[in-house]
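Replying to the earlier thread about multi-chain prediction with a worked example.

Input:
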Amino acid sequence: METQTIAAKRDEIATPARRAFPYHVLEKPGDNMVDRFLEAFAWVLEYTDYKPLLDSYCRSTAKCNRCAVACPILLASGDPRDIPCYRTNLLLDTYRRYFTMGGWVKARFTTPFELTEELLYEMGDVFYRCTVCRRCTRSCPLGFDHGLITRLGRYLLSLVGIVPKALQVSVQEQLEGETHNTSKVSRAGLLDVLSFLSEEMEESLGVKLDFPTDETDRDYVFFCAVSDYLMEPDTLMGNAAVLYAAGDWDRWTIGLCNYDGINYGLFYSDWHLEQIIKRLVAEVDRLKGRSVLIGECGHASRAAHDFIPTFMGQRAPPVRNFMEYTLDCLRAGKISLDPDVVTERVTYHDPCNLARSGWIVDQPREILRSFCRDYVDMTPKGADNYCCGGGGGLVSIDELHDFRMEIAGKVKAEQIARTGADIVVAPCANCKKQLKELVEHYEIPCTVVGLHDLVLRAIEIPGGKSPAERRAEAALFAI
Amino acid sequence: MTIDSWIEFAKGPLFAVTFMVMVLGLGRQVLLQFYFLGVKKGRRLRNVHWKQVARETSSWVVPVRHMEPGTGLFSVASYLMHVGVLLVPLFLVDHIALWNAFLGLHLPAIGEGTADALTLLTISCAILLLVMRLLRSRHRLVSRPADYLLLMAVLLPFLSGYLASHPGVNPCPWNVMMLTHLLSAELLFVLMPFTKLAHVVLFFFDRISVVHWQLRPGAGDRVAEALYRKEVGAR
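Result:
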């Protein structure tokens, strides 16, 4: 057995230096990438709380490879770069060598690990081969959060200008652009969409509802992924139907200065994560709203639910995901769902940002089981479920489409096919986009919908058309 | 010095010194982590479900539900090795006198047969882990020299201890084997705070990533200011 140095090992398995990332970046990285990266690392260690985490991980990493068998990407690719603890150790080795006493001492006596431009290119590649699903964390006996390390790696790279252009441009528009949202939907555009949805609901549900915008002093200020306004009318109408049927139409509003719950900072930058959260809370404060209601988006829900308390402290408004609200209404008898409308086989995909921590696992299942005759669960499910393959912002990066289809989403596609389901419920904008592309790519005969898309079909609307009537009408127009 | 006087030295002052290095070194790690948790994070921690963290941590004591296909053999070997590594050094009859003398601890003794079985189990599991780490490419790729050497460092005191107490299979003189046993154990004491063996105490602090996800407010602005002001100033 020959002892390998780190550099030799990396040369053995790393891709040849191509001086390119597998995604577009806004500006080509300049000279002194390594120095700038280390300087950014130093400032991050100075002002954040990552140092004790890195110290602890450096001294405990067991290299047992349990993370490897949990990772759906490694299971599909077999590429050693995808072993979570290999990827984490790129950053830990850098930390140990340049920021610890032990690393400094060791460097005096042995051939030390050295951060090079090739390594930075490798980091830029492998940190965006991870969907930050954190399945590996559940499998690691030491509980290493490789997702958190991936994020830290991406944050450091972003500080030296290495970020997928798709994410950076969206965040720039959200923070500095005119429309202040990631899809450049203008206020006029939004009002058009809401007017259209209103007309749709009048025609299909039989009730005239005007979406409440910029209303003050409401219990719920609603945020969804802004792309839902363009692409998921059924989900939004489902949300509206629940609010109306529960008698809460006067308790909610959409803010016209900020109507985008998306937070790409959660994927790659602590700095932007905080800024976007602050803007969201500023909108709630402007409207004197009492709480935040997040629509069907996994990362938007988690960003708001976990990080509003973190960044806003005592001033944090409470945050709920819409599915929690719907379940409360169902349990209280405020809404009623017709159990004869959805007869297809239905299964449920757990978005990582909702389920991995155990936050939202049983709630959507309780809703679905109350009105779906043929509900089946995937295996594994809940907090152990597989990532759709588009998490961590990957779904927004078109250059990674082939990677997402062939590798990142392969295990998920097989899992869906095994259920034999006609309908996959995925209450997350990003998961929906990824899963729709996946089922098309692998020719799996099923449709991907949001949870409230199905609720819309089954919900009893006071003073409106019954679910059976609506189903009959929809069948007439079905192609 | 004769071997016997080396043995007396290793059983006495050297044991005390190396044990103290281990205790102080690991204690420092623990204190630093508590300092971080209590002082730096303290009041800013929100909604940490400590009961859930405790429950998940303790589920690893008997990790049956954590078994995963593809890691069965490695996991079982590692778990059984840990059982031996924890029980034999603490509860072996010969060691109990040591704990009594140095720490005033009166620990119960395990029977000789049990101790022998546990020691052989530990040795065979450690060898199995070493072989798997050498042969499986997935393990080899993430392993550096320390990962192999530390396994051997853990194996050595068990092997030498077993041979020292079983003259029938011991190829060396008893005092040589005894000295090897003492020195290899003391090497482990010294290595513990500075290598991945520190997971003995850090295990609990590794598992609290929920705490680490609660990022420090305002940190992003400060980092950006420090980093970019210099660049802006340079233009």
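Chain B touches chain A through 63 residues (CB under 8 Å).

Feel free to reuse this layout for your own posts.
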